[in-house]
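Example 1142.
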Amino acid sequence: MTTISASSDTQPLSLEQQLTQLETRFASDLAASPSTEALEALRVAYLGRSGELTLVRRAIGSLAPAEKPAAGKRINDCATKLEELLTQRLAAFEQAALMAELEQRIDVTFPGASPALGSLHPLRRTTDAITGYFERSGFAVLTGPEIETEYYNFDALNIPPDHPAREGFDSFYLDGGLVLRTHTSPMQIRAIEAHGTPIALVVPGRVYRRDSLDARHSFMFHQVEGLLVAPGVHLGHLKAALTGMCRALFGPEQRVRFRPSFFPFTEPSAEVDTTCPGCGGDGCSTCSGTGWIEIGGAGMVHPNVLREVGCSPEKYSGWAFGVGVERIAMVRHGIDDIRSFYENERDFLEQLA
Amino acid sequence: MKTPLSWLRAYTDLPETPQEIAEKLASLGFPVAETETRPRISGVLVGRIDALQPHPNADRLQICTIDVGNELLLTIATAATNVAVGQVIPVATIGAVLPNLTIEPRKMRGVDSQGMLCSASELGLVGEWFEDGIMQLDRDLPLGTDVVAHFGLLDPIFDIEVTSNRPDVLSIVGVARELAAAYQRPLRLPPITPPAPTGADEIQIKLHSDDVLAFVAQRVTGLTNGPAPSSMRIRLALAGQRPISTLVDISNYVMLEFGQPLHFYDARAINNATLIVRDAQSNEQLTTLDGLAQTLSPELLVVADQNGPLALAGIRGGATSEVQADTTEVIIECAAFRAARIRRGANRLGVRTEASSRFEKGIPPAMIELAAARAAYLLSEHGGQLHPRAVIGHIPKPNSVHLPRGAADRLLGFAISDCALESALSRLGFTLVADHDGWLVTAPDWRSDISQPADLIEEIARSIGYDQIIASEFALPPSPISSAAYLRERALATRSAALGFHEVVSFSLESGRIAERFAAATATAAPNTIAINNPLSEEQHYLRFSLLPGLLATLRRRQSELREGELSLFELSHIFPNNDPKSEQTAAMWISAYATTNQPNSRPWHDQHFLTFKGRIEALLRAFFPDRLHIEPTQVTGLHPGKTAAILHEGHIIAQIGALDPRLAAEYELDAHCYVAQLDLASLQERPPQRYRTPSRFPRITRDLALSLPKTVAAAQVQYIVAQAEPLVQTVSVFDEYHGNQLGPERKSLTVRVVLQSPDATLTDLQADSAIAHILSAAQSELGAVLRT
Ligand SMILES: [Zn+2]
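Predicted structure in complex with zinc ion:
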């Protein structure tokens, strides 16, 4: 690009000639500019603080006063024209860049680069599904100690020493009249002692039975206890609560049935079955063809238990249940060996996450 | 309890299909754990051997002529050696189906044989429980009787689960009684009224223990022992009880029928016709029926005579008074003991017998007269002469309980008419007397489990059917009890998973070797752990003191996965840190392992894995501790002494984080760089809502300062001093640690990035320069810092 000089030895060009030449040169420079960066350089060269047009504008000072307005207008028109041309060209470049970007093609099936994700243990997920249902229904969630006194684990629950059921629990004993809790039921007593009645709570937790480890049994497993004590509570309320729980766990079509049973701390007592999710009740290998699977025990809180915590069976009644978390998780996920829960293998943890 | 369906059918009418009966039993509270189907057998008839002759062509075969009740006599060759003319035996005729064969006509060494004589095992019974060779049947059985139908050999055998409150249902009559009530069909009890005694020898009974409620004894003479009648032997065998001899079998048979154990003594072994029930004396000796020589102690109850103990009451008989093949006189004992006493005795000996497992559940005393009478009846049928029955003790009246009208409706949640209620209970044998506000209900003799209205209400529900219970919602107000502690645990777990940690569940019981190995590796004293007094095995002897060993064991098992980079685990559970049971607490621990091929850094003063791990743990804690946490170096057993930090909140240590002690990594053979964090869950308290600070809208100025510092100055100190030095400081971060010769051996370089901002004006360069000057001055005076240029 050549710069013009107002002090050329040849005949000075008129303003009009200068501007015409400048516009011509600009047009060819513009056409030769390959990028938005080049356009910016062009703007500086022509319109910048020491650009060509600015130099021409400075020369106006030497004109006769009468010529100045027209010359000024002509220069401004030229500036506007150059700006417009620049803007148009810039827009064309941007448009072209967008079109070029739109032409890009990648393999969207290429594996994603995932952040390292963790997982919650299947037992926690099943526990949360149970406690979550009861939280929504207005129940508190509490936890309790795994080392229990024989009083809370047995005596207060209407299982005095020498009760045949006491040995059925096959407990682990510690020094000092302590036991590893064999069920989450001691929290029925502790919670009523701490909070009084009426009361509605669920208690998830680990429990221990002196059972050798095999595919179906473990010396340590998890339960969720439920308890509702209030005036007017009856067995139908228990059925509704457990039906709701089973629907939250297995699906909206679940039904629940009760079968008579015996637990020292409930009367009447029931085994709780729900529709086998494997077959929807038609019978399959999971349910040994019965269409039902057993998920736990339940019943109306025994009057002796209510009396033990100073609660009158004439005024209050209550239901309680205890369900096995492993048992439910095995049915939910089709797990056939209880030991899988404690081996923490990658496939087990990550598949079910 | 093994319950042959054919035996049940003898006492009440039942539906044809076993499945339907099993479902009914389950609905009554007695689920069938297993149904044992019987082998398909057909075409076996009762036959009599009318003649025997040697086989002309085979020494070991005999040719029998068999009468099976029609005109045609069968010729059957047999290799059995126990055959004799006149015997009545099961004969598989042509076309008969036995467990492993079908009978066809065939020649045996040239003689046509038209069937086969059957042994017990060929009828699907336990062969060793019966005579070798051909099974012997009662001689008075009509010839041609279908053996399979007559003895109910095709009916399956239920293994019924009976809850411990119902010892009465641990019996065939008990199960039949429940089914008869449910189907509303009559119960056909076996004959229980013996003829009047014709003998005169009454047994003397002396009770020296309050744990005997009642005791019946009766002498029976003129007996002969030998195999019991076929129907009794087969029923016992189907019920899983080995037939022994008539006298032994009768006592077992009555126990299985009525659930009341009895004991027969050989009368020859009883001195002076006197039975004494008393506590055993210390070190008294008794050899029991199973051949064990027992040394007794006073918690055991014995039946004795003047010479010493004869039997462990309620548990097991003694060898000296055992009924023998030549026994002709027996003494029937039938007694009611206090359940707890029998239970303690059996526990002391570590045994559980058919008798003790029934007694310890509390059989009602009223049952003893019934069972004793049935035994006397069967013995007299067997030719015995009865002597007067001696009864001592008190048989209490069955319990009566007042059931208020409406109580059942309230507990069960549906309306039951008076008529339905009365019918429900009376079907089960209860008697009701209505009064002005309910009923006085008396339990039947065989029930020991009824003491209050709730017990009756359960019976009503059982009788009407648990399927009548209607689900109905209980409207519950929001809980006034806070679930916050549990919800925080759940949030901690959820956030841990979001940050890439996998939750594991490990056993809380572990071997004592774990604590020893842990202590040896870290050169510390072994933790005091809580021991289980009755462990299943050494592997589960102690409660775990920490979550770390379980996590390390999992890592060790899974370390091959480390080839893929990193493995991060966490566990959130109870630990028992010392031998005080009150030390039980909920703990949380995180661990990350990185492959050793992925070297964190060769510079000893830098560990990028530590920083990455620490960053994740800080991100985890931020949800629970929004305000700034203080971090300082610390030492924790199990963690690296120079790579461990305590995290403090308001002056309290809430968490510890560090590299695993390399000696522990070596002990667990972990070929990995491991980092561990543990949190005190009790520190996760409910906090008041945070206050929002309106951010300044004026621009920020960022300056980086390269400082030379003594090596002993920690980054956190620098951050703290810089932040305190100047109110315009918004944030301070430290990066780019460098140690090098040009700094001298005692110094290091840190770059500090300071962000300055004023809450109410745009900062001028002059103000910023002045602030930086304050910062440098404070850093110099407090830390010995020099700005590097
Ligand atoms: Zn199924």
